[in-house]
Design goal:
The chain is mainly alpha-helical and about 425 residues long. Helix content is about 65%, strand content about 5%.
Length: about 425
């Protein structure tokens, strides 16, 4: 075959292959090989979204950012879009390679896979697009981008070195408000890694009055367990934060409503925590009543979560779970969660039916989780041999692909012996 004919075939085949790879999820490719080719051909970076079917935060981003005209117009122009499911072997490999510890994580890499920047967790549309522009070069240069990225990736030694470089090379920068916030975030992260409660408390106390409302949530969530003495100060700050960013106007709510409420709950007395959870359930029920189950999966899952967390809501959960399973029949998640809830109520026969359905819909790493629940239900029903057989079969099939996830199922097996 001559070179001209070979070149013609390659130019025809590659776009077709790319189109086939993208067809599964709109503008998103689902295979790194295709994404790399597209990046090399188009001279663009790759925006990788790490997600999972069980990730409630991922659905917030899909509903509020990734499906909206602004991103659909801008995103594909600035980067090749790649969506990786962390429950698949390829998704898990890249998740570990790029240390994507939080879902969703959006990591921008070049065609060689070298990271250029990342965006972590739920973001509003405005926040997400601003950060994406900063990473892809569509915004003004940001001298703090490297420091921010190192902190987000938990590369703390490199972040500390970058902070010192900035202090030495940028005359006015150490007085910059954003630099101070990032410096305190780094102090807090270092203290948490070393379990230094004193230093963590000092950093968190300094962050409470100056950190932006919603950005404060992960900082406080990480620190409260180590520094319980600051619960009262956190409670005061988060009470005002929640009034505005959870219970206030819809367009001012934190993208991660769930974590915002949980931080305040953790910092509150038992009585105030119970009242907060009831108030949150009431808010979510009103929001869901306007839309109906199936319209907004992030909202639906937040309602499920807070009904379970608040306790004493069995009647509401008994009504909600069938609706969730019917609204989202294509994946295993709600059959699994419903089965787990029924197992806790000792309704084993119905729980087993749902666990089996979830198992049939599951795949990859999440199948190990479903198998563990199924085995526990079988054991509770006196079918220990069947439970052990199911666990051994799944370990044989999946241990090599998902060794870390298999550890949990091996513990289930040990319980059965």
């Amino acid at each position: 075959m001559n070179k001209l004919w070979s070149s013609f075939l390659l130019s025809a085949i590659v776009p077709c292959a790319l189109a086939a790879g993208a067809a599964a999820e709109g503008p998103w490719l689902t295979d790194w090989g295709f994404a790399r080719q597209a990046a090399e051909t188009g001279g663009k970076p790759v925006l990788i979204e790490f997600h999972a079917v069980w990730c409630y935060s991922c659905y917030y981003m899909e509903n509020n950012v990734l499906s909206k005209p602004a991103f659909l117009a801008e995103g594909p122009k600035s980067a090749v879009l790649l969506r990786l499911d962390v429950d698949t072997p390829e998704g898990r490999e890249w998740k570990e390679k790029l240390a994507a510890r939080v879902l969703p994580s959006f990591v921008v890499v070049d065609a060689a896979g070298k990271e250029l920047g990342r965006i972590i967790g739920e973001q509003t549309e405005k926040e997400f697009l601003e950060q994406l522009r900063a990473i892809t070069g569509a915004a003004k240069p940001d001298p703090l981008r490297a420091l921010r990225g190192l902190i987000d990736r938990k590369e703390l030694a490199a972040a500390a070195a970058e902070r010192e470089r900035l202090r030495a090379e940028k005359g006015k920068l150490p007085q910059d408000a954003e630099f101070r916030r990032l410096s305190l975030r780094l102090d807090l992260a270092e203290a948490l890694e070393k379990k230094d409660a004193g230093r963590a408390g000092t950093a968190l106390k300094a962050l409470l009055p100056i950190e932006e409302d919603c950005a404060l949530v992960p900082q406080a969530m990480d620190a409260l367990e180590l520094v319980p003495a600051l619960k009262s100060a956190v409670a005061v700050r988060f009470q005002s934060l929640a009034e505005k960013r959870v219970f206030g106007k819809a367009n001012q709510r934190c993208a991660d409503l769930r974590s915002t409420v949980l931080v305040l709950a953790d910092a509150s007395s038992d009585a105030k925590k119970a009242a907060l959870l009831r108030r949150t359930v009431s808010l979510l029920q009103k929001m869901a009543a306007k839309k109906g189950v199936g319209d907004d999966r992030n909202l639906d899952d937040n309602l499920r979560f807070f009904l379970e967390t608040a306790g004493g809501k069995d009647a509401e959960l008994g009504e909600l779970y069938p609706k969730l399973a019917a609204a989202y029949p294509a994946d295993y998640v709600y059959s699994y969660r419903w089965a787990k809830w029924l197992y806790g109520r000792k309704e084993h026969a119905r729980a087993l039916e749902l666990a089996q359905k979830a198992w049939e819909l599951s795949y990859g790493a999440n199948r190990l989780t479903v198998t563990g629940l199924k085995a526990r239900i079988l054991t509770a029903m006196g079918q220990r041999d069947e439970a052990e057989q199911a666990v051994r079969a799944e370990l044989k099939a999946s241990r090599g692909r998902f060794p870390k996830d298999a550890v949990g199922l091996e513990k289930v097996l040990a319980e059965l012996r």
